[in-house]
Write a structure and sequence with these properties.
This protein has 940 residues and is of the alpha/beta class. The chain has 31 helices and 28 strands.
Length: 940
């Protein structure tokens, strides 16, 4: 296991505690549940624990007491920009989740919950966006600690991060499992979770030595909290953690009384003083701390007494020449910021140039140049205005490359003024292609202002983009507003793409064709026929066509021209479980089983065979690319996105977008130009056009030129299994063909059948009310079912002879009718018999599916309290041995954090049936919605 020790590096800790809220219920109808006085104690205790721990130095700790949202964002970006070693973010306050349960919102001082406003939560930070800001930091390791209700819902956000390198840098510690509220404790004491966190950081972890590591800390917290505390739902209180596998452990502290080895530069490297934002306080350097720092300098022999005296004399002389009395002791101290001053400027404005000169002389005299900087004085960047922040949405398969390009651009000459200021920042995020097309084409109104939980592009896709880079020009055409509904967005795509990557059949080297001629000039069907002749056991897989353009293009080729047998085509690429979301995920998961990796082809874009996919390449079977001539390739295209009433800073935003466009596509001459503006001087830079641009980044990742012979943008080793000139490419994708293929895919096997089993026994009473209650969870999954699908709902409790009563008869339904039936569901004073209910459900589905191959699914939502009826008298073994259970996937959705533990009945039933086991350790709501959507023909 890798171990990261931040000592001696430039670290940052941002501690955010929201104990006071401006809007609370019942006084404010849209307020948060109440004040959290216990949180105020958390911050003081945690600061002392971190200082004692010796990993994060006192001046590297920033405390934000009840900040408003804007101030929190500013402090978060400042910490992210400054950290080079460890970046620690701690949050304590109210945590809220939307009805879908697929996001976590950290509620700040000005939080409100307003139905119909942005995602329902004002004054709250979306955890997805928090992670994006953290991921842009240059910190080597990032640790997030969340002490709030529903903290475990952050796990789903972390798991959804596409880039393995980001997941490997970011570790998340969550105070409680998903969809659970927790008690903050007494007003005079810290919250229970943070109290134990501080205890472990201070006293260490039994049997683990002097150092406190992230993984040991997470396990110790889980053991203690689950043994001594319960959530408000009555469940065991189980803190959660997420870190990439194999994990990278992080040293977070040294127990009190233990030795603290000091890394190089510990006593010298100091953060720039002062922070910004209301309620944000930097810890000033006390006289005692200054004495300790000076003592450390002397003990390490950086200054002899004679040299120190000479240095002081030189500083005094320099100060006297500039202006007598210009430097006082207070001028050298970090300043506590004024809450009323505008954000973005240092306390008191830019430091006077004479003071800057004195400080630089002092730094030089003490030998501290390179370690001590005041107010960005070296480049006078204290006068920089905040850069324009652009939002860039892209296809998930492109996200890694686009992010690399954006990161390169941020520090390029094209994005820097003559005064050294950054012109713009760029937030890159990916989202499912089909959802983006629907959002831009039909949902721009709710994207600006969501009015219901059913249609909320801000939640499902992300913020409104300024730039969109779809994987094909055809997708930009598909997303043009239809004109039927009112629209608030205008799309301005470039006339031509800026890069290209053909779709390939990536085959294990041992079963691929040997000659280049046999690997080109044939259709996908022809190449697959050759593969079948070489290896009858070989199979082919394709990612999810609803999630990426590359998978949809593969589907266009898979179905072929003319009338296709879609059902048979889908059967030929059907995975054993859900399809991989992206091509990168597909290539990453194949090596999990060596036999599968050696015998499975993958329909993926060619560039992934050059750039890799972030997983261990040394364990992967070597592959060769075969080039079907009827599968269109990727041709990424730049699209400017404009929103109605989004023109407050239109000129600045247009300029920022155009500069990035020209740099990315290689069509402009902004690389070396510095026009001079309010952010810098007017001298400019005449260094000429920049050698590197966005095309260079795409070339490094394996992309080709968008026209002509489609030559590689950068040279690549033939050992990658590619062919430099595979011949004439497939005809470019057409919007109509992609839409047709997507509709055919969604209806490949006809409408589906789903039977919902709702545990209605007495033990479910505490899990019944609201959107997070059992009926509410089932209601959220109905969006995946269309009007042609057939489904029904059983109430599972046994007051009489039958193990169930019918809440909703089996058949096609309008969604509102099904929701009304679930609204009428009630808990019964009886136990459930899961064995009898599942046996009856399997018999029912067997009768209904006897004459067709329509997709089917059984869902059992339960708290597992009555599993004794399932395990008694050999019932479970009998159920698992039934031939019917292998015909219908069963999703066991347990409202219990241990429902899917290895060997538990829920897990065994799901495994044998080919279904999925869901519990509250993960995102049960989102997982159930996905499983139902895969079976049905609904829009979600």
């Amino acid at each position: 296991m890798d171990r990261f020790d931040p000592r001696g590096k430039v670290n940052r800790a941002l501690l955010v505690g929201v104990s006071e809220y401006e809007f609370t219920r019942p006084k404010h109808r849209d307020g948060v549940p109440g004040q959290l006085p216990a949180v105020a104690h958390n911050l003081a205790l945690l600061v002392r624990a971190l200082e004692r721990g010796g990993v994060v130095r006192p001046l590297e700790i920033t405390v934000a007491r009840s900040p408003r949202l804007a101030d929190f964002r500013h402090s978060l970006r400042a910490a992210a920009d400054a950290a080079e070693g460890l970046l620690l973010l701690y949050f304590a306050g109210h945590g809220a989740v939307p009805s879908a349960g697929d996001e976590l919102w950290l509620q700040m001082r000005d939080a409100e919950v307003v139905r119909g406003e942005t995602a329902g939560f004002e004054g709250a930070a979306r955890f997805t966006n928090v992670l994006r800001i953290l991921a842009n930091s240059h910190a080597e390791r990032i640790v997030v600690v969340l002490d709030c209700c529903n903290a475990g819902n952050a796990a789903r956000v972390w798991e959804a991060v596409e880039r393995p390198d980001v997941r490997r840098r970011v570790s998340v510690l969550m105070s409680v499992q998903a969809n659970n509220r927790i008690d903050a404790g007494d007003a005079d004491t810290p919250t229970p979770f943070t109290a134990q966190l501080v205890e472990l950081l201070t006293s260490g972890i039994e049997g683990q030595g002097d150092e406190v590591h992230f993984l040991d800390l997470a396990e110790a917290l889980r053991a203690h909290m689950s043994a001594h505390h319960r959530t408000e739902r009555g469940e065991r209180w189980e803190p959660q953690s997420r870190t990439e596998n194999p994990p990278v452990d992080v040293v977070l502290g040294i127990r009190a009384g233990a030795g603290r080895p000091v890394g190089p530069g510990t006593a010298l490297r100091q953060p720039a003083p002062g922070t910004v934002g209301t309620g944000v306080v930097s810890r000033p350097t006390s006289g005692r701390r200054r004495q300790r720092a000076l003592g450390a300098l002397r003990s390490r022999r950086f200054l002899t007494t004679a040299k120190a005296k000479a240095s002081v004399a030189r500083v005094r002389a320099a100060a006297a020449r500039l202006r007598p009395g210009s430097v006082s002791p207070s001028a050298l101290r970090p300043t506590t910021p004024d809450p009323n001053r505008p954000s973005g400027r240092p306390p008191g404005g830019p430091p006077p140039r004479r003071l800057v000169a004195v400080l630089l002389v002092l730094a030089a005299a003490l030998g501290l140049v390179g370690y001590f900087v005041v107010g960005n004085a070296a480049s006078d960047r204290s006068t920089c205005a905040p850069p324009v922040e652009l939002r860039l949405l892209t296809d998930p398969d492109l996200e890694s490359t686009v992010r690399k390009a954006a990161d390169t651009y941020l520090t390029s000459a094209a994005n820097t003024t003559g005064g050294g200021c950054r012109r713009s920042g760029i937030t890159v995020y990916g989202a499912g292609s089909a959802a983006v097309v629907a959002g831009l084409r039909d949902q721009s109104d709710p994207w600006q202002r969501p009015v219901s939980d059913d249609t909320d592009p801000q939640r499902d896709i992300g913020p409104q983009p300024d730039i969109w880079i779809p994987a094909t020009l055809a997708t930009a055409t598909r997303a043009r507003p239809s004109g039927v509904a009112r629209t608030y967005v205008t799309l301005e795509p470039d006339a031509a793409p800026f890069a290209y990557s053909p779709m390939v059949l990536s085959l294990p080297q041992d079963i691929a064709e040997d000659s280049a001629g046999d690997r080109t000039g044939d259709s996908l069907a022809g190449l697959r026929a050759k593969l079948a002749r070489r290896d009858k056991t070989a199979s082919v897989r394709r990612p999810d066509p609803e999630y990426t353009d590359s998978a949809l293009l593969a589907t266009v080729g898979l179905y072929g021209a003319g009338k296709a047998d879609v059902g048979r085509a889908e059967e030929s690429v059907a995975p054993t479980g859900p399809p991989a979301p992206t091509a990168g995920d597909l290539l990453c998961t194949l090596p999990d089983n060596a036999d599968t990796d050696r015998s499975t082809g993958a329909l993926v874009p060619e560039f992934l065979m050059v750039s890799g996919v972030g997983c261990d390449r040394t364990t992967r079977t070597p592959r060769r690319a075969e080039y079907p001539d009827d599968v269109p390739g990727l041709d990424p295209t730049f699209v400017r996105v404009r929103w109605k009433d989004g023109d407050n800073d239109e000129a600045a935003r247009d300029d920022a977008v155009q500069r990035f466009h020209d740099w990315l596509t290689g069509t402009g001459d902004t690389g070396g130009k510095n026009d001079g503006d309010e952010n810098g001087d007017e001298r400019g830079d005449e260094s000429g056009k920049e050698a590197d641009n966005g095309l260079a980044v795409f070339g490094q990742d394996g992309f080709r030129a968008p026209s002509g012979t489609h030559a590689f943008l950068a040279a690549h080793d033939s050992a990658d299994g590619l062919i430099t000139d595979p011949g004439p490419p497939a005809v470019a994708a057409r919007a109509e063909a992609m839409d047709t293929a997507l509709n055919q895919y969604r209806n490949a096997n006809g409408p589906g059948r789903v039977l919902f089993l709702l545990d209605s026994s007495g033990s479910m009473a505490g899990l019944w009310q609201g959107p997070g209650g059992a009926p509410g969870i089932l209601k959220q999954s109905l969006g995946g079912l269309g009007t042609q699908d057939e489904y029904g709902v059983w109430s599972v409790a046994s007051p009489g002879h039958s193990p169930y009563t019918e809440l909703l008869s089996f058949g096609p339904h309008k969604r509102q009718d099904a929701e009304r039936a679930l609204d009428g569901a009630a808990v019964k004073d009886a136990e459930a018999d899961p064995y009898a209910a599942l046996k009856a459900a399997l018999e029912t589905m067997d009768r209904k599916g006897r004459d067709d191959d329509r997709p089917e699914l059984i869902v059992f939502l339960t708290d597992d309290e009555d599993n004794n009826h399932l395990t008694a008298k050999g019932h479970l073994d009998e159920l698992l041995a039934s031939p019917r259970i292998q015909d219908v996937p069963v999703v066991m959705a347990a409202l219990d954090s241990g429902g899917c533990a290895k060997g538990r009945p829920d897990q065994r039933i799901s495994d044998v049936s080919g279904g999925r086991c869901l519990d509250t350790k993960g995102d049960l709501v989102a997982g159930l919605r996905d499983e139902v959507a895969r079976t049905g023909t609904g829009d979600e």
